[in-house]
Amino acid sequence: MHNTDSRDAIGRFLFISDAVQSVDLTIVAASPTISSILPAIELYKAGLTPRIVISGAGTMMDGLVEWQGYRDYALAQGVAEADVLVEKYATNTKENMALSAKLVASTGEGWNKIRSVALCAKPFHMRRVLMTARQHLPNGLHFIALPPKHSGDLSRETWWKSDLGRTRIFEELGRISTYALRGDISGL
Question: At 177, is the secondary structure helix, strand, or coil?
Fold first, then answer.
C-alpha cells in the first residue's frame, strides 16, 4: 500500500458528505469557527428544513460561546428565532447528540414527526458525528451528513499537507476509537 492509498482510505472514512435533500430537522455540532452552521442555513433558506438545533458550549475564536455565536449568525442570516433550538451545555460530540435528543424530546411534538435529520459539523468530524447520532438519537431516523464546503476547513484532498492537518485527522481517528471502546457510537 502506498502513502496515497492510506491517505485516500482515511479521507474516504472520515470525510463523508451526502446530497442535499429535504429533512425534518437539522442538528449542528458547533465548533470554534462558524462554518459548521453554513449548510444548515442553506437548507433552511431553501425550505428544506423547518428547524435547526444548535449544540455546543465551547468557546469560539472570537470569544463567544459556540451556541451563542452560531445562533446569532443564523438569525442575522434570516433564520427565524422560533425555528432555532439551542442546546447550551454540550462539551463533546456524545453530549451534542444526547443533549440535543433530550431537547427535541422536550418540545411539543418531540420526535413524533421527525423521520430525517441532517447533521452538520466540520468535514473531518462527520463520521464521528454520524456514528454518535446513530447511538444517541431515536432509532429509525434517516441521517444525511452535510459538512460545510469552506476554504478554512480541512479537506479530504489536502488534510495531509500540513502538520496541523495531520494532527487533527489522527486525533479524530483516536477519538473514534475511544468512542467505540466506550460504546458511545453505533454503526461500526
Answer: helix
- Is the distance from CB of 186 to CB of 134 less than 8 angstroms? yes
CA dihedral of 182, 119, 152, 76, whole degrees rounded to 10: -130
Q: What is the pLDDT of residues 126-176, one digit of tens each?
A: 999 999 999 999 999 999 999 999 999 999 999 999 999 999 999 999 999
Q: 52-79: string of b/e by CB count within 10 Å (b at 16+)?
A: bbbbbbeebeeebebbbbbbebbeeeeb
Residues 6 or more apart in contact with residue 161 via CB below 8 angstroms: none
pTM > 0.85 = yes
> Residue 18's CB: how many other CB atoms inside 10 A?
14
Q: Length of the chain, please? A: 188
Instruction: Give the list of residues 6+ apart from residue 83 with CB closer than 8 angstroms, or none.
Output: 44, 50, 51, 52
